[in-house]
Design brief:
Length: 366
């Protein structure tokens, strides 16, 4: 049976039997095949013997924690989605989980709908990755598929608003249109593997300008550090002509250390009129280091700090401290992935300046 037709297999790990059973019951039995493990060692044994679509693991377990298990998994599998759950969330484990590419970091007690949605999305991502690998098992085919994806690429714009809900900018988000490379994740991975990131960057610049007619709002554009290295960032002349409107969001910040003469490159971009934003502040590579190195005009809070902020005192303290620090050095704070009115009002109270997320508008293809 092809993997796309097989029942999705979910591995559930928790040292408490009652919790394992409860997590298993949350998943519709007709749609998923659940396997349980009471510790990380048992889970690793299951993973050696069987193929799973998703792993759901508690973080606080004896011997080897859920984060430790994730680290073991990543040594052999870059694609397997892992959902970490905990009753005692803290910023350190959340940051480490993001750094190890955890699919989601969820707080107990779990919301039934949110948990099932996370598992469903994880299965889709896993199977898209598997499908992409099966389509692209030869480099020649990869290059051909990438060229087709580049030609078919489209841009969606998502609004960014101020505290009154007025649009102040838009983020340009790429959208794949081909079966082999259907989404941004696999498209970026292919660009990196094929050493065609600069080509992808130039195509995005072209499409972003063509689909951004407004003369007043800001255009937020994602930039990979490799584009800084090769000096392909912002080389598209129509983009340079509107540099005063463009904010370059630096992604994959862990690669910044590989950029020679980083400060010089950033200064050159600013001289042209571009502004800089630090993306996903609060995850992965040291966020404070990136603020020091890049001296950005904007900081975009990672979704891990935004989702559920209205319900978490700890998150509120972190966001408030971050907003205060940024305000003191003249940096605007943009909260991404705002999905509810409660989150928006809480973030407004905590001192965020601008906002982005489904609550204000979904990305729209132009």
């Amino acid at each position: 049976m092809a993997i796309a037709d097989a029942t999705p297999k979910v591995l559930i790990i928790d040292d408490e039997t009652a919790v394992r059973n409860a997590l298993t019951r949350l998943l519709p039995s007709a749609e998923y095949e659940g396997t349980q493990a009471e510790n990380a060692e048992q889970a690793l044994q299951h993973l050696r013997q069987h193929e799973f679509d998703v792993v759901v693991s508690d973080i606080c377990m004896p011997a080897l924690s859920g984060v430790g298990l994730l680290r073991h998994i990543r040594r052999n599998d870059d694609d397997l989605p892992v959902i970490l759950v905990t009753g005692r969330p803290d910023l350190a484990t959340a940051a480490e989980a993001v750094n190890l590419r955890a699919f989601r970091y969820m707080e107990k007690p779990l919301n039934h709908t949110e948990f099932c949605d996370a598992v469903r999305r994880a299965v889709i991502l896993k199977r898209l990755s598997a499908t992409s690998r099966s389509h692209l098992n030869k480099r020649g085919e990869q290059n051909e598929a990438f060229s087709e994806a580049l030609a078919a690429l489209r841009i969606a714009h998502q609004p960014i608003v101020d505290s009154s809900g007025n649009a102040v900018g838009q983020e340009a988000l790429m959208r794949g249109q081909t079966a082999a490379l259907p989404n941004p994740f696999v498209l970026l991975k292919a660009a990196e593997d094929l050493d065609r990131m600069a080509e992808l960057g130039l195509r995005i610049q072209q499409l972003a300008v063509e689909t951004f007619p407004t003369e007043t709002a800001l255009l937020f554009l994602n930039v990979h550090p490799s584009e800084l290295t090769t000096r392909t960032c912002a080389t598209y002349e129509p983009l340079r002509q509107r540099a005063h409107q463009v904010v370059l969001e630096i992604t994959e910040r862990e690669s910044l250390g590989e950029v020679p003469n980083l400060h010089q490159r950033i200064d050159e971009l600013r001289e042209l009129g571009f502004r800089i934003a630090v993306d996903d502040f609060g995850s992965g590579y040291s966020a404070l280091n990136s603020v020091i190195e890049l001296e950005p005009e904007f900081v975009k809070l990672d979704k891990q700090l935004v989702r559920g902020v209205d319900k978490s005192t700890r998150l509120q303290r972190v966001v408030e401290a971050t907003a205060g620090m940024c305000r003191s050095i003249g940096v605007k704070v943009i909260a991404e992935c705002v999905e509810t009115e409660a989150e928006f009002h809480q973030l407004l109270e905590l001192g965020c300046d601008w906002y982005q997320g489904y609550f204000f508008g979904h990305p729209e293809l132009v």
